[in-house]
Specification:
The structure is a homodimer of 128-residue chains.
Chain A: H1 3-11, H2 23-34, H3 38-50, H4 55-60, H5 66-78, E1 82-87, E2 90-95, H6 97-116
Antiparallel strand pairs in A: 1-2
Chain A binds a DNA duplex (30 and 30 nucleotides) through α5.
DNA sequence: TCCTTATGTCGTAAACTTGCGACATACTAT
DNA sequence: ATAGTATGTCGCAAGTTTACGACATAAGGA
């Protein structure tokens, strides 16, 4: 891309500015985004409870059309949180438990970092 | 709202269908959404490291304008993840560590549920 | 072969998100 | 009072997300 292109995209930058944030911050945000819709949370829980299911089954248990569910599945698949393999006439979607375990650790580290810091109190300078 | 309104909103429903999802799923998705942007992750980490800061300071440390940072702060504030109180000419934003602790537990419960289920393997019906 | 069934893709509409400049407000100090 | 500084609000532009119908494709059976 050209120099002018860079200037233009900078001027009309409306997407998330990923540059200048750490890889960890971007990674956490990316996974959080995947979980940022109740349907996707429900899909993961459904897969966890059934251990194996197919797209049609999932749509039947959610208040969404098959197309929309498929879209959510693709989003989870893009992050490799779930996997799907064609098996004849049906598809087997399953959780990537290994990756989910890693993500869990990442979130835990973040929350511990956030909760171990002392909250503002009367003793602080701000006093709030 | 009227009956017609319901029909119309249903016809042109483009927002997240929150109905028919459990409260837990919606709650988790809501918090995940708050963390779904690197800037907001960075803000929480910054507040955790400083224990007390003000809006202007935060903007200075991020590659975003003051207005945009303020917007992200409002989003975190809407969920009560952070709190801000006016103190003369400055504002003290601080983490709601109590709530963050609760959220951490919620995420942990979700991830444990998702990772303890056996992943698909050769022994399964799907065989993937 | 042709029909059924199941999954994948495309296009579209409406709402939401992100980013920022410009303006408004409020407190402090001179 | 008035200037200066710091935070809050508004409105716009462009991109992304969500939802779904309609169509495409592929496997399996009558």
């Amino acid at each position: 891309m050209s120099y002018i292109y860079d200037i233009v995209t900078d001027l009309f930058m409306t997407t998330a500015k990923t540059t200048a944030f750490t890889t960890e911050q971007q990674q956490l945000a990316r996974v959080a985004k995947a979980l940022a819709h109740p349907a996707r949370v429900a899909i993961i829980q459904l897969l966890a409870s059934k251990q194996t299911c197919i797209s049609g089954d999932i749509a039947a248990e959610l208040p969404l059309s098959r197309t929309t569910v498929f879209q959510h599945l693709q989003e989870l698949k893009a992050l490799d949180l779930i996997r799907g393999e064609i098996d004849g006439l049906t598809v087997c979607y399953c959780l990537n438990t290994e990756l989910l375990r890693q993500v869990h650790q990442q979130f835990t580290a973040f929350f511990i970092e956030a909760t171990t810091s002392a909250a503002c109190g009367p003793a602080d300078a701000c006093g709030c």
